[in-house]
Target: Leucine-rich repeat-containing N-terminal plant-type domain-containing protein
Amino acid sequence: MSGLSSISQLLPMGILLFSWIFFMPLCSSFFGMHVALVSGECLSDGRVCLEDEMLLLLQLKSTLKFNADASNKLVSWNQSADCCSWGGVTWDATGHVVALDLSSEFISDGFYSSSSIFSLQYLQSLNLANNTFFSSEIPSGFDKLGNLTYLNLSKAGFSGQIPIEISRLTRLVTIDISSFNDLFGTPAPKLEQPNLRMLVQNLKELRELHLDGVDISAQGKEWCQALSSSVPNLRVLSLSRCFLSGPIDSSLVKLRSLSVVHLNYNNFTAPVPDFLANFSNLTSLSLSFCRLYGTFPENIFQVPALQILDLSNNQLLWGALPEFPQGGSLRTLVLSDTKFSGHMPDSIGKLEMLSWIELARCNFSGPIPSSIANLTRLLYLDLSSNGFTGSIPSFRSSKNLTHINLSRNYFTGQIISHHWEGFLNLLNLDLHQNLLHGDLPLSLFSHPSLQKIQLNQNQFSGQLNEFSVVSSFVLEVLDLSSNNLQGSIPLSVFDLRALRVLELSFNNVSGTLELSKFQELGNLTTLSLSHNKLSINVDSFNSSFSKSPHFTTLKLASCNLKRFPDLRNNSKFLGYLDLSQNQIQGEIPHWIWMIGNSFLVHLNLSHNLLVDLQEPFPNLPPYLFTLDLHSNLLRGRIPTPPQFSSYVDYSNNSFISSIPEDIGSYISYVIFFSLSKNNISGIIPESICNATNVQVLDLSDNALSGEIPSCLIENEALAVLNLRRNMFSGTISGNFPGNCILHTLDLNGNLLEGTIPESVANCKELEVLNLGNNRIDDKFPCWLKNMSSLRVLVLRANRFHGPIGCPNSNSTWPMLQIVDLAYNNFSGKLPAKGFLTWKAMMASEDEVQSKLNHIQFKILEFSELYYQDAVTVTSKGQEMELVKVLTLFTSIDFSSNKFEGQIPEEMGNFISLYVLNLSGNGFTGQIPSSMGQLRQLESLDLSRNHLSGKIPTELVSLTFLSVLDLSFNQLVGAIPSGNQFQTFSEASFQVNKGLCGQPLNVNCEEDTPPPTFDDRHSASRMEIKWEYIAPEIGFVTGLGIVIWPLVFCRRWRQCYYKRVDRILSRILHHQDQRASGGRRAHRIRRRRM
Model:
């Protein structure tokens, strides 16, 4: 662009200069003409500045409003100064102004249609870029500048309609009206009347069109055809952030000279067109943030002239890297935040010009090819957040690298220290969140240029040893957190005088350390020592020390602190303070609310021994977004939350007051609010309805009473509502909104009556519904069947009645893992076919482990804060609270109802079930043999039913079974033996008149031997070897009365052998039983570990 502009200016200037030197003297001699200038000033090369044009410029200066202190050009325009020194002005040979550059002059006003600038009729180039004409419209006098070939009004703050007069500048070669207004929330320039077609219809000479940030709002065919029909010689097309829509029309292929195409931040919502590969001159293609989808055409990679390719932030765009040819032109490759996948080809090493690779947050996998070491021009490499594996390769030839980011992958092995020698320009090395192990490469800390080292979230181990410091004022960021490092903090760290960030949290670093030691690092702003084995002494910390660091982040959680560090004098910038899980006693000092000059945003004092807030109690900092005081001994009234807080946790304390009447006005911005596990009484005030942004509200385990405000039910923002274990009464009033986003609704343990509102069905994302231990009188809520995300359903101990089958429902509960309907009046048969849809209970152990997680709700999209659901279940005869409900735990409790009929065989499909309780019902028939498939089962209770028949021998294969109760039924026959059954007490089988065998003291009849099961030799009963019995018989060979029946009486002989066989079986079986019990105990212990 600059080359063309220079040529276009130099040619006419040279011709004019030639004419001036030779033609004017001839006219004077031969024609007697007298030629005189209009009082101008001579330039050094013989040219002059015409006085009238000088006056026009001075007039322009007087009308423009600009910052004289920041100006470099306009301030030099002075009538007393030589015109050749006027900044930004180019004169031609005749003294006319042909180019005017007033870019970056901080001009804010004074550019109107009447401006004297439009009287400079010889003007060919006008540049007003990078000024501050905020909300000013582009004036309409441009049609007077008919000689303009270059017009640049970019980033100058102009807004409003682009005037039609610009379309009459038929000689324009370059036009740039790019704007950043849309990024700063101010009105952007727009093309409505004229639209894009009208703007360019006369600009046949146009080579470059830059309209980034201009509101064009045109469909694909409209803007593509407008360009292809009017500007056939266009080379540069830059229309980013122009509200264009797609798809990109094929008419654009007519612009065969296109070399630069930048269309970022438009809403094309279409595939990338193949025809882009037909632009043989294409050097730069940028289509980031365009909502492109489908598969990227591989042949675009093969365009020989292509130097820059940016497809980033198109999350639905798929593709793979091709095989690259030798000597390709590609210099910049940016594919971040796409679905590109596959391996990085070895041929990438052939791209000798490649200097920038950015493939972050894609789906690439496999090792990085060793050929990447051939990229000698490589400056920037970001492969973070992929699935790359293997060891980190050597970049031995890429000595110009400044930035390496390989974080969030699966790299293994150790870091080889000598691989990083000679990288004199390397500034940033980020290898965090991989699987790297071994000792830390201490030589990195002595690197002469490295400013930032991030090795956190790996598996580095060993001692933190001393290291040499080559330059004390280079390394600024050192993050070694979340590893397995041991030993004390090396004294070498305190020689890193430029250090701003030191992260050592979540290691095994030990020792006693004075906090005052860190005052030697005067530039330190972030210090994180949390969750180690350190004991931090804060007694000698002197906040008034002149060179003391000004912390912005201080994390000292679990550091055995006994008192608050004195941060009063050096905390004016402190925004993040974590002193949780220490042993700090007494009151919270009032000065802590004033640190950070009232801009403290995060304060965590949880898990201490704090008892009160020191008086006088000031207003909390308004921008304290996170306030966590849970798990202390705080008492008295509830502190008023900060005005703009988003996370407030006062749970697990001893607050005894009621909730303040005006609480709603203080939590109007709160997203998480918890008062659980206190002694709070009274009602929920109506002002809670003002908390329209709250997503998690936990008031559980208090003594609150009254009715639940209907506005909580109707709140459209609530994702978790936990009012468990209070004394709320009345009905569940209000309607759940149509756009309900509830994940958890827990009202367990109150005095609620009435029915369940059917509007709960609007909550399509509901995972936990816990209404147990109330007085709800209703039928089974079949309309819940539409909730495919439901994981936990607890209706325990209410007054529900009727059958639980839903014959007219085709919906499923594929995620359901905990069902508790115990202690109600449900009746009828169990819905066998309905059980076939409970897929989560049918998953194999491998499937469950691969998806292992907790039932939880992420509070903020970009935070690490989660709300953990807690559910009380009855297992092994005892109630237990699952504070973190794993997705692998499955439980069914239908006990103490009026169910009848047979237990469905389909229950044998629940192979991942841990707890099954069907006790206290009216089930009849036999125990299904399919229950032997429930290999994960730990607790089985079928007691107090009317079950009959024999106990299936298949139950003996349940090797994890630790609780079994089959009592109070009508079972008959011998109790199976082997494995777990040898350990159960008599109580597991009592009151079954037909049962016999161990552990009952009832011997079975001789003709009904107990069924046995031994997983070592289960194919047949014990075979008796006759040669072992023969000596026994020989003993009585002389006794004729015995010999004769044995030899000659078949009936006598069979009876004798049967008796001997039974004696030996019992002896040998008792030995196997003890061995089996030992194996079972070993399995149980191993499983619990």
Q: What stands out?
A: The first helix runs from residue 2 to 30. The radius of gyration is 41 Å.
